[in-house]
């Protein structure tokens, strides 16, 4: 454990890590980087961009959802936001199932909440010093979120958050679910799309707080992703799930995603990674 703490000579407490990151520090959290990389999607320069698989966060969301179609609140967003470059901030993309989904507010408290939800979903427990490793992992997730927000155009990346649909100014809204949406052009995905498709929306990092799972939060998040694809003008959405994660696969299938390919079993076994499936959905641009 000393090799981890040796990297942070100016930090007297683990609670200071997230503060340093939010203040623009260059803290590198080597202790948990390999765990995060194991589920990360990389661009051509090797930079970690987004989570590739939903992991345990979606495996608990097994309730059946209805087919996705824009509600009245969503249609308002579509009518206002189809023009390219318009940035959705606090407007609700979806208000359904008792949850509303909007874009992340780039403030310290909310970003910490988002990092906590994703860290709790994706952290792999360890036998010793689990709490310490979790705090490092959560700080690494926060660092990755800041990187994406600072280096992505507003119409190329969005972090969406779900919260209770309660209109009460006296109650503090609680982030109960998170999902990342990124515009990508990976050839491994494009080969399954029509030749005219040059880019698509990639959904990743979907996570729901443990006490709010099995309550349609993940369904609302997926619905918001589709609305955002219409707002940004993209016809196809893609995501990956672990082949053995039947709960996640059922959730995505109910939302209209279809399996188009699987990781090579030789490749997955060789590097010791769980086999994944690629799932794609086509939106109706005429809605």
Automatic annotation (TrEMBL):
Pfam annotation, one family = Acetyltransf_1
* A single GO cellular-component term on record: NatA complex
SUPFAM superfamilies listed in its UniProt record: Acyl-CoA N-acyltransferases (Nat)
Q: Which PROSITE patterns match?
A: GNAT
Q: Where is the composition biased (Low complexity)?
A: 57-73
Please list the residue ranges annotated as the N-acetyltransferase domain.
Answer: 112-284
Q: Which stretches of sequence are listed as region Disordered?
A: 57-78
Q: Which GO terms describe its molecular function?
A: N-acetyltransferase activity
Q: Name one GO biological process term.
A: mitotic sister chromatid cohesion
What Gene3D superfamilies has UniProt attached to this entry?
A: 3.40.630.30
Looking at the UniProt entry, the stretches that span the membrane are none
Q: What is this protein called?
A: Acyl-CoA N-acyltransferase protein
């Amino acid at each position: 454990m000393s090799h981890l703490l040796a990297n942070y000579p100016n930090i007297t407490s683990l609670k200071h890590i997230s503060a340093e990151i939010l203040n623009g520090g260059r803290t590198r959290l080597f202790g948990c980087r390999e765990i995060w990389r194991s589920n990360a999607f990389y661009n051509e320069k090797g930079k970690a961009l987004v989570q590739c698989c939903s992991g345990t966060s979606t495996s608990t969301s097994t309730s059946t959802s209805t087919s996705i179609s824009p509600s009245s609140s969503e249609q308002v967003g579509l009518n206002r936001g189809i023009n390219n470059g318009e940035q959705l901030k606090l407007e609700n993309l979806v208000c359904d199932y008792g949850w509303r989904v909007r874009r992340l507010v780039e403030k310290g408290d909310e970003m910490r909440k988002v990092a906590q939800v994703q860290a709790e979903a994706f952290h792999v427990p360890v036998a010793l010093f689990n709490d310490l490793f979790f705090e490092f992992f959560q700080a690494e997730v926060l660092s990755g979120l800041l990187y994406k927000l600072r280096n992505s155009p507003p119409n190329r990346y969005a972090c969406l958050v779900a919260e209770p649909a309660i209109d009460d100014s006296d109650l503090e809204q609680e982030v109960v679910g998170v999902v990342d949406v990124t515009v990508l052009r990976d050839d491994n995905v494009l080969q399954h799309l029509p030749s005219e498709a040059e880019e698509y929306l990639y959904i990743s990092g979907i996570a729901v707080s443990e006490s709010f799972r099995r309550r349609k939060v993940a369904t609302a998040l997926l619905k918001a992703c589709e609305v955002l694809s219409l707002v940004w003008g993209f016809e196809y959405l893609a995501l990956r799930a672990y082949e053995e994660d039947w709960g996640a696969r059922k959730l995505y299938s109910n939302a209209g995603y279809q399996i188009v390919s699987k990781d090579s079993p030789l490749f997955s076994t060789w590097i010791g990674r769980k086999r994944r499936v690629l799932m794609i959905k086509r939106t109706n641009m005429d809605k």
